[in-house]
Design brief:
Homodimer. It is an enzyme of class 1 (oxidoreductase). Its EC number is 1.1.1.37. This is Malate dehydrogenase. It is built from 11 helices and 11 strands. By secondary structure, it is an alpha/beta fold. The longest helix is centred in the C-terminal third of the chain and has 27 residues. The structure holds 1,4-dihydronicotinamide adenine dinucleotide and oxaloacetate ion.
């Protein structure tokens, strides 16, 4: 009898400590948008998330009320911009995802979003730097090549910048790459892994097919596949015909990245994701941020993997990427300097 009760107590103790370790508050800024809603839904379904905090300039509490009826354990709270809404949303967060900002319409580049999204991201970063300076910040808002440096500059100005905790979400590029290559090769995409490095727009997206399971793809087939991976976002923008860009696939990609960070934070080793981070790889060329495979740990970036061995064709892609990337990054840095 005593032994039985003891077993129960030990079990309860273990269950309690496991849930205490796993208590993770995740905030989504821009939660009522095309990405924000399905992303928040996927986070509500994630047992590693204990508190989901949803902020938007409009509609946050509505989305939160809706999601809060789903029978998973996490609490969901919605916040408006009034009073201390944004601060309350951010405080205590371990992860902050930022899908707030306008999406493209046909004919636009991601850089065309800069004028609107730069100040949105800057202002949200200011609030995050004050309310939750140690949180991992995951930037989804475009142009990612510039919005990530914007967040870095805001944090630097407040002396709270930790390069290990800032991430541009480029997961969708590798998600697309594995799907597109599987379509060409008639394989299962879950068994495909195509590294994609560089940045997140047009020619700054550099797929490394030579490191995939299909390194022999060459000629027109290779060119078509690389082009589709680089401009996959345009495919969706065109198909949506003015109603925005990728939202559902992006929500999946953002939720996958957040899940990877949580797994790493909760002690799992060897969690690797591609992501656009403050990186040493091309700093000697004046390029402070670069996306490559990154091992994640409890404090964010654990190890940044180099691009590895690439062929001459890929070196050409990389050269074009670096030239554009440098300008995109500088644009973000200059914006914060001129508009602190
Ligand atoms: N990193 C990536 O791979 C991808 C990035 N994106 C980018 O994500 C961003 C969002 O796209 P969608 O969700 O489709 O746009 P959307 O227009 O559907 O949603 C944006 C949401 O942000 C909110 N918002 C605007 N200003 C805000 C502020 N200051 N604070 C809080 N919320 C604010 C809006 O009210 C809206 O609910 C775009 O910039 C888009 O280009 C889209 C797809 C992939
Ligand atoms: O294409 C866009 O504007 C949205 C985006 O970043 C993507 O789908 O990769």
């Amino acid at each position: 009898m005593f032994a039985a009760r003891r077993t129960v107590n030990l079990f309860q103790k273990r269950a309690f400590s496991a849930s205490a370790i796993n208590a993770s508050k995740v905030a989504v800024l821009g939660a009522a948008g095309g990405i924000g809603q399905p992303l928040s839904l996927l986070l509500k379904l994630n047992p590693r998330v204990s508190d989901l905090a949803l902020y938007d300039i409009r509609g946050g509490p509505g989305v939160a009320a809706d999601l809060s009826h789903i029978n998973t354990n996490s609490t969901v709270t919605g916040y408006n911009p009034d009073a201390s809404g944004l601060r309350d949303c951010l405080e205590g967060s371990e992860i902050i995802l930022i899908p707030a900002g306008v999406p493209r319409k046909p004919g636009m580049t991601r850089d065309d979003l800069f004028n609107t999204n730069a100040s949105i991201v800057r202002d949200l970063a200011k609030a995050a730097a004050e309310a939750a300076p140690k949180a991992h910040v995951l930037v989804i808002a475009n142009p990612v090549n510039s919005t990530v440096p914007i967040v870095a500059e805001v944090y630097k100005a407040r002396n709270v910048y930790d390069p290990k905790r800032l991430f541009g979400v480029t997961t969708l590029d590798v998600v697309r790459a594995s799907r597109f290559i599987s379509q060409v090769q008639s394989t299962n995409p879950s068994g495909e892994a195509v590294p994609v490095v560089g940045g997140h727009s047009g020619v700054t997206i550099v797929p490394l097919l030579s490191q995939s399971n299909h390194s022999s793809i060459a000629g027109q087939a290779r060119d078509a596949l690389v082009n589709r991976i680089q401009f996959g976002g345009d495919e969706v923008v065109k198909a949506k015909d003015g109603a925005g860009s990728a939202t559902l696939s992006m929500a999946m990609a953002g939720a996958r990245f957040a899940e990877s960070l949580l797994r790493a934070a909760q002690g799992e080793k060897g969690v690797i994701e591609p992501t656009f981070v403050d990186s040493p790889l091309y700093k000697d060329q004046g390029i402070d941020f670069f996306a490559s495979r990154v091992e994640l740990g409890p404090n964010g970036v654990e190890q940044i993997h180099s691009v590895g061995e690439i062929n001459e064709y890929e070196q050409g892609l990389l050269d074009a990427c670096l030239a554009d990337l440098k300008k995109n990054i500088q644009k973000g840095v200059d914006f914060v300097k001129a508009n602190p």
